[in-house]
Amino acid sequence: MRPDYARLNELPAPASSRLIDFERVEIVTLESFPPQLVLVVSGTKPYFNMEVTLAPLMYVRQPEYWGIEVVGTLPGAIGLPALAPYQVSLPLAGIVGTKGIEVIGASRSERRELDAEPASQPSRAGVFELRGDDAQLAYTPADDPEDRHLRFRGADHDRDFGGAELRLSTSEFGELVTVGLQEIPDEPLVKLTLLVPPVNLGQATEAAVETIAIISTDRQAALTAEPPEGQLVTYKTFALSGTARRGASSPRGTLLFSRDDRPVDGQLRELKIAAEDASSFTASLRTAYIDRVNQVEVDETEKLAAGLSCTITNAEVRCSRDERPVDGQLKELVVSRTDGGTFDATLRTAFFDRINGTEVDETIDIATGLTRQ
Predict the structure, then answer these.
(1) What φ, ψ does residue 132 adopt, rounded to 5°?
(2) How big is the chain by its Cα radius of gyration, in Å?
(3) Are 141 and 165 in contact (CB under 8 A)?
(4) Residue 83, CA atoms < 13 Å, CB-side half-sphere
(5) Could you give the angle at the alpha carbon of 80 between the alpha carbons of 74 and 86, nearest 5°?
(6) What is the pLDDT of residue 90?
């Protein structure tokens, strides 16, 4: 189906551009993930200085075969009459018909059948948990920079980083995530860089990974009377291994915040805020750890409040339910982002103690250093 744009068809055709013939059509699949299709057209152009392009047609709805014209243009409308070979290419993302494409030249056209369904996207990891060489790292990637988080524990450091504190760059080996461990004026500049390998989980929930982290110390940043001699930047490398997992994937309408300090004498704290219906939420707190005295695993979930009304932003989640003054109480859960990019959670409980005739208003810390999943 060709486009039916009346106003477009009424416009005059350009004098410097024409359909030209082609000789060969190829569909190339790039070695990428997901695979990408590229149309490659070659032939002989009638003018040496003619510029050849592939121009997709416009459609109101997806046609069976998407038309792509082979167009030759003379720059400045001046042609050098000499035959010359040409080869042009065009990525086919978004311009494939229900059955394929149709390459349109001056005297003929050629159809190629293609699958119009988009290639499946890789299943990316939501959390990297890594250990090695007396170091522990946990990295949470995210499309929104404000949701990224990295925690590093080493012999001399125990730091959490989030948001703009993480600087990302790409390399042929993978993604590089850099944070500042020491950024003090007139002192050496110390940075940590984690190499995050590409991972496709497929249908699995996690995959084993091996990578490295580097602590660099830049002596040039320190102001001294004389410029330092010798190697100016030194490096300490950590060999790391661990898992890349989906993270605690949340069902639709569920917010999940967690911090896992296991197995090093710590515990898992997992705060879940789940939608009951279109307007109310239930909050619960899961705590899991190893009871080393009794040598048993403890995994408990406490219901904090139900029937909550919530206001949700990227920086704060505030949920409350107030049944005062009729023999009820106020429950107010606040999960707020810290300057370090993690989240702290508090729960306020307020009510009137009729036995003692006093008002009770208490706020407790539920968990700190949480990561939003």
Answers:
(1) 150, 150
(2) 31
(3) no
(4) 3
(5) 65
(6) 87
Contacts by 166-169 with C-beta closer than 8 Å and gap 24+? 166/341
Find the helix or strand (DSSP H, E) in which 290 lies.
Answer: strand 281-291
pTM score of the predicted model: 0.42
Q: Parallel, antiparallel, or unpaired for β 24-30 and 109-113?
A: unpaired
Helix (H) or strand (E) holding 8: helix 6-10
**Alpha carbons 276 and 254: distance in angstroms, whole number:** 10
276 contact partners, CB below 8 Å, separation of at least 6: 282, 306, 307
What are the chain's domains?
6-113 (no CATH), 127-245 (2.40.128), 254-372 (no CATH)
Q: Strand pairing of 174-182 and 167-171?
A: antiparallel
Task: Quickly tell me which residue has 């790292």 as its tokens.
Answer: 137
Confidence class of residue 248 from pLDDT cuts 50, 70 and 90? Answer: very low
User: What is each CA distance from 195 to 148, 241, 243, in whole angstroms?
Assistant: 15, 12, 14
Q: What pLDDT sits at residue 364?
A: 92
When pLDDT is cut at 50, 70 and 90, the band that residue 3 belongs to is very low
| Cross-strand pairs, 213 | 194, 238
pLDDT digits (tens, 9 = 90+) for 110-129: 999 986 544 455 667 888 88
- 214: pLDDT strictly greater than 90: yes
Query: What is the pLDDT confidence band of residue 75, given thresholds at 50, 70 and 90?
Result: confident
